[in-house]
Amino acid sequence: MTSTDETRGVFAISVAAEMVSMEIxxxxxxxxxxxxAPARTPGGTRLYSKRDVERLRRVRELLGxxxxxxxxRRVLELESEVERLREDNRALRRSARxxxxxT
Length: 103
Description:
Layout: H1 3-7, E1 11-12, H2 13-19, H3 24-32, E2 39-40, E3 46-48, H4 50-64, H5 69-102
């Protein structure tokens, strides 16, 4: 599966809500609060990707741990930053290994 497959909006809001066992109105609230950003069709219909669905599962998990929506948004931001830094670290390590093997 490619990154594009994970980020392409394919699920209608009703399907996404069912996949994560949430009410449709909750998904709308989470979008307004910036917790998820589904794609939109030219007509304005929300289309959720596999990555959006995973993010909604994480929101549900964090709600279950007692966090409020502001706290959840911060946790999601920090988790994204950690993942970006890990990717940067992996790229730097690969670059360092290539440089070391050339000398």
